[in-house]
Amino acid sequence: LQTRLPAVGYTVFSLMSALASEHGAVNLGQGFPDFPCEPALLDHVDAAMRAGHNQYPMMTGVPALRDAIAAKIAALYGAQYNPASEITVTAGATQALTTAILCCVHPGDEVIVIEPAYDSYLPAITLAGGVPVPVAMELGEQGYTVPWDQVAAAVTPRTRLIVINTPHNPTGAILRAPDLHALGGIVRGSDILILSDEVYEHMVYDGVRHESVCRYPELAERSFVVSSFGKTYHVTGWKIGYVAAPASLMAEFRKVHQYNVFSVNTPMQHGLATYMADPAPYRDLPAFYQRKRDLFRDGLKGSRFTLLPADGTYFQCVKYEAISPILESDFAQWLTTEIKVAAIPVSAFYSQGRESGIVRFCFAKKDETLRLALERLARL
Ligand code: PMP
Ligand code: GLN
């Protein structure tokens, strides 16, 4: 069979998690919590199952959940999305991203992707027949930033879509108001669409607010905005997310969605809908993860790792040049097999495998897990 994805193997997350378990390493590689979700969330899902919510839901998602999502977006970002025509529940953010790309990218269309980039964007663009146009973030004193002049220079008459991600995986960088204004300046007067991956929307630290594209009407009117319950409620294995977009874009999204998955499992949607009535879990998330971030950073302060800023997400990137000159994937492998702490090489997030001597750790872990990892890392 001639492959449709010649540049692709198994994801770095699957590979590193397998290596971590083979070598009994503390897994700070793949991003997922090693602690349980709130028991109350399970009670809501259990109640939904027992109430008989076990058959196909509406293709677009359970109405109560779409209502809850629209209410949350309105409360947090002041944007009005009609739950009937502008919100769709998806099988995780991954499906939302792929479906959004498939519904609007035609063969030969160019898609600007800011690198390092989450690994699912490029294969989805390739499957759509699109041409990925990577623009690399710059790493300076204040961490990673997007060079908007280079994004502007990458725009051509074939540009169909720009993919952004804030808070950003893997760097932990966040976009700020001037970034959104710069993006607005680039797309103004064009028919370029935006795909905004905001799965870490509730993980922004130090009192800074999340700059959702939903806050910017000029951007929101041309954007698919994606989020994921897996991140917010510590249930990455549930694979439920959603997309919000203006009705005209959503109509096209749903045409593809209905033949990707048709619909997403019913009881979890009902459980999430009633659980979401309480804003406390996502309101308290920044404080919860900021404490873990600080615990992890403090533990590495005396080590030979150089900490990069970590303004959002549950990832901490570190430079390891003082420890070793080897390639990132070799270093991550060595950390996993010899030091028994798994990490992800940031080079895996670049189409051309750019090397910066940086690996990513996930701090969405129990304190005891972080302490065990720190004991091993701080000795290096
Ligand atoms: N986008 C980014 C930036 C992510 O980090 C992840 C999760 N690893 C996803 C999308 C996918 O989310 P989900 O698990 O809900 O498919
Ligand atoms: N988003 C998670 C990460 O970046 C992993 C998701 C996956 O395993 N595909 O680590």
TrEMBL record:
Its cofactor is pyridoxal 5'-phosphate. Gene3D superfamilies: Aspartate Aminotransferase, domain 1, Type I PLP-dependent aspartate aminotransferase-like (Major domain). InterPro entries: Aminotransferase_I/II_large, Kynurenine-oxoglutarate_AT, PyrdxlP-dep_Trfase, PyrdxlP-dep_Trfase_major, PyrdxlP-dep_Trfase_small. The keyword Nucleotide-binding does not apply. Residues 26-377 form the Aminotransferase class I/classII large domain. One of its GO terms (molecular function) is transaminase activity. The keyword Transferase applies. Keywords: Aminotransferase, Pyridoxal phosphate, Transferase. It comes from the Bacteria. It holds the Pfam family Aminotran_1_2. PANTHER family: FI04487P. This is Aminotransferase class I/II-fold pyridoxal phosphate-dependent enzyme. It comes from Massilia frigida.
